[in-house]
């Protein structure tokens, strides 16, 4: 018995790290992160960023992009929850990793951070294109901004940009306002207009353009103004999150520590906004924030507690669902006033906003429409920065039973009278026909039919 | 003026001839006519009533009107079949025609009574 106990404890203690660290619906935060680098020098030159991730509890695994041993999955199980590609010039990945493997990694719900740079390789561009953004095709192009550049000692070529045009979403970039502009130096990208999942988080100013800073501009630049995105995020339909930026140096210690003064502004900040911006954004990417779950979907008739197998038309019912938000450590009640439920059959017959009790319980009561068929309770909640919730529950709605209709309505008495008088007169005047002198007693037997109708109608209904 | 009076006379003459022709109709056909008239009249009253109180128990309204109209149609069919001057149905005995009428009414009113509410 004691031996079994030891084995049990040992096996649990071996399994526990795996049980705790793996990505699961219960703890959606990523834990194991693979970082692919061009050069291990990046590990030290970008150590502030990596350290801030380590402090948040992420387990970083640094590998060279062309390391022949790298693998995202083994025996069908993914080894990592997230992938950081800090290898802008990698022409090919080592091991079994290729573009398809990375896309499959994202398709199975894992997260990705891509940092490109000037002279980004075709491989990185291809990964970015798969995610819905297109880097400037000119390999030596950089984003240049002659009015929004960061002031430095030397005049420079205005490729070091100070941008503060953030996306307006507290969920994505954190509720604390980012005061200082973010330094950016690198390649710009545009969003694929047909891809509605990709969002611009940091966009260039209207005066920016993308061109080679060393050569004279002979043709108009292909990317200009606010169409240029400096940092973009994607939240896929499976809630995988992707960060794409055209600047690897914005993650560097130098940019993190550097002071910043935007041209045309007299305010000089001691520290750029990069650290706050990128750390908060990475938290969002790794599902520390903005991850919702819906549990305990219930519905019942008003005044009852059991969930019926089906409803009748015009029933009053109540729909309840609990929605929680992941705070990074625990599930907190999610409080908002814009969650809606649909009572849906081909199109929504009822669309109601749910009210909540501030503890995560959302409820609404409504009347089943006067239409029967197979309905669904549907909650399709998609809000900027939050994972999408898509709940549906099928429920049939039946018409009234034969004995559930209202009877003897006073308004309908004339109609009853008309129907019964017709039947009644069927019976009596035709009796006169029986005594017609020409055909006396011939229809005598048939009159019993009439009597039969009359009696049947009485028995049936009255 | 002369034209009006002559048309009035014509109308009167037409009415008189119709009436004298109709008085020659056998009594049982006259009873059927009376019944059809009654049924159509009841149907009209119900339509007027519905227009005034609204269509709420619509099933009741439909069954009330259809009871009257349906029976009227069946009675007209019966009248065609038992009319001795109609040679088309001379082989059909009036008993058979009446039995058909009764059977059809039975089916019609089973439906009507179900739908009446």
TrEMBL record, chain A:
Pathway connected to this protein: Protein modification; protein glycosylation
InterPro entries found in the cross-reference section: DDOST_48_kDa_subunit, OST48_MD, OST48_N
OST48 N-terminal domain mapped to chain residues: 32-285
Main location per the UniProt record: endoplasmic reticulum
Entry membrane topology: Single-pass type I membrane protein
Span of domain OST48 middle: 299-424
Location in the cell: Endoplasmic reticulum membrane; Membrane
Alphabetical GO biological process terms: protein N-linked glycosylation via asparagine
Keyword entries, A-Z: Endoplasmic reticulum, Membrane, Signal, Transmembrane, Transmembrane helix
Residues spanning the signal sequence: 1-22
A GO CC term assigned to this protein in UniProt: oligosaccharyltransferase complex
Keyword flag Transmembrane: yes
Keyword Signal carried by entry: yes
Family: Belongs to the DDOST 48 kDa subunit family.
Subunit record text: Component of the oligosaccharyltransferase (OST) complex.
Function as written in the Swiss-Prot or TrEMBL entry: Subunit of the oligosaccharyl transferase (OST) complex that catalyzes the initial transfer of a defined glycan (Glc(3)Man(9)GlcNAc(2) in eukaryotes) from the lipid carrier dolichol-pyrophosphate to an asparagine residue within an Asn-X-Ser/Thr consensus motif in nascent polypeptide chains, the first step in protein N-glycosylation. N-glycosylation occurs cotranslationally and the complex associates with the Sec61 complex at the channel-forming translocon complex that mediates protein translocation across the endoplasmic reticulum (ER).
Record protein name field: Dolichyl-diphosphooligosaccharide--protein glycosyltransferase 48 kDa subunit
TrEMBL record, chain B:
Segments traversing the membrane: 32-52, 58-78, 98-116
Lineage: Eukaryota, Viridiplantae, Streptophyta, Embryophyta, Tracheophyta
InterPro entries for this protein: DAD/Ost2
Database matches in Pfam families: DAD
Quaternary structure annotation from Swiss-Prot or TrEMBL: Component of the oligosaccharyltransferase (OST) complex.
Top-level taxon: Eukaryota
Source organism of the structure: Gossypium anomalum
Name of protein: Dolichyl-diphosphooligosaccharide--protein glycosyltransferase subunit DAD1
UniProt topology in membrane: Multi-pass membrane protein
Localization of this protein: Endoplasmic reticulum membrane
GO cellular component: oligosaccharyltransferase complex
Function field: Subunit of the oligosaccharyl transferase (OST) complex that catalyzes the initial transfer of a defined glycan (Glc(3)Man(9)GlcNAc(2) in eukaryotes) from the lipid carrier dolichol-pyrophosphate to an asparagine residue within an Asn-X-Ser/Thr consensus motif in nascent polypeptide chains, the first step in protein N-glycosylation. N-glycosylation occurs cotranslationally and the complex associates with the Sec61 complex at the channel-forming translocon complex that mediates protein translocation across the endoplasmic reticulum (ER). All subunits are required for a maximal enzyme activity.
């Amino acid at each position: 018995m004691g031996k079994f106990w030891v084995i049990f404890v040992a096996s649990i203690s071996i399994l526990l790290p795996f049980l705790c660290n793996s990505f699961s619906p219960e703890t959606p935060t990523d834990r194991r992160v693979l970082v692919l680098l061009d050069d291990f020098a990046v590990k030290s030159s970008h150590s502030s960023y990596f350290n801030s991730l380590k402090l948040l509890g992420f387990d970083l695994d640094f590998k060279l992009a062309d390391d022949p041993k790298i693998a995202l999955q083994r025996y069908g199980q993914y080894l990592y929850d997230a992938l950081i590609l800090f290898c802008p010039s990698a022409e090919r990945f080592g091991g079994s990793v290729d573009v398809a493997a990375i896309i499959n990694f994202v398709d199975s719900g894992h997260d990705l951070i891509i940092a490109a740079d000037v002279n980004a390789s075709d491989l990185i561009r291809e990964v970015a294109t798969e995610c819905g953004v297109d880097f400037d095709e000119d390999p030596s192009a950089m984003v240049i901004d002659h009015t929004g550049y960061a002031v430095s000692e030397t005049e420079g070529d205005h490729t070091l940009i100070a941008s503060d045009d953030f996306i307006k979403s507290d969920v994505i970039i954190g509720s604390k306002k980012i005061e200082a502009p973010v330094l950016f130096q690198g390649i710009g990208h545009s969003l694929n207009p047909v891809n509605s999942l990709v969002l611009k988080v940091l966009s260039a100013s209207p005066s920016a353009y993308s061109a080679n800073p060393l050569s004279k501009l002979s043709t108009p630049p292909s990317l200009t103004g606010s169409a240029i995105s400096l940092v973009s995020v994607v939240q896929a339909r499976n809630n995988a999150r992707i960060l794409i930026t055209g600047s690897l140096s914005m993650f560097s210690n130098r940019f993190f520590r550097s002071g910043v003064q935007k041209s045309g502004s007299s305010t000089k900040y001691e520290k750029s906004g990069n650290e706050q911006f990128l750390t908060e954004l990475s938290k969002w990417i790794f599902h520390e924030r903005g991850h919702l779950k819906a549990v305990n979907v219930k519905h019942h008739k008003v005044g009852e507690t059991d969930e019926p197998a089906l409803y009748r038309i015009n029933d009053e019912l109540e729909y309840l669902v609990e929605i929680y938000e992941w705070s990074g450590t625990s599930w907190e009640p999610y409080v908002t006033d814009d969650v809606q439920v649909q009572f849906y059959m081909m199109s929504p017959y009822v669309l109601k906003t749910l009210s909540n009790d501030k503890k995560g319980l959302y409820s609404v009561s409504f009347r089943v429409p006067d239409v029967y068929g197979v309905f669904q309770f549907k909650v399709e909640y998609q809000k900027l920065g939050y994972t999408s919730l898509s709940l549906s529950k099928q429920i049939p709605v039946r018409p009234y039973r034969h004995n559930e209709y209202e009877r003897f309505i006073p308004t309908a008495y004339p109609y009853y009278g008309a129907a019964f008088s017709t039947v009644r007169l069927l019976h009596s005047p035709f009796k006169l026909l029986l005594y017609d002198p020409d055909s006396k007693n011939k229809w005598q037997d048939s009159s019993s039919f009439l009597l039969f109708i009359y009696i049947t109608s009485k028995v049936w209904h009255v | 003026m002369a034209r009006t009076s002559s048309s009035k006379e014509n109308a009167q003459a037409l009415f008189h001839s119709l009436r004298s022709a109709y008085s020659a109709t056998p009594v049982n056909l006259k009873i059927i006519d009376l019944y059809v008239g009654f049924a159509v009249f009841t149907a009209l009253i119900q339509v007027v009533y519905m227009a005034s109180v609204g269509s709420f128990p619509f099933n009741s309204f439909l069954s009330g009107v259809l009871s009257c109209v349906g029976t009227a149609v069946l009675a007209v069919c019966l009248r065609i079949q038992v009319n001795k001057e109609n040679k088309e149905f001379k082989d059909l005995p009036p008993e058979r025609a009446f039995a058909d009428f009764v059977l059809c009414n039975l089916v019609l009113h089973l439906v009507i009574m179900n739908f009446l509410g």
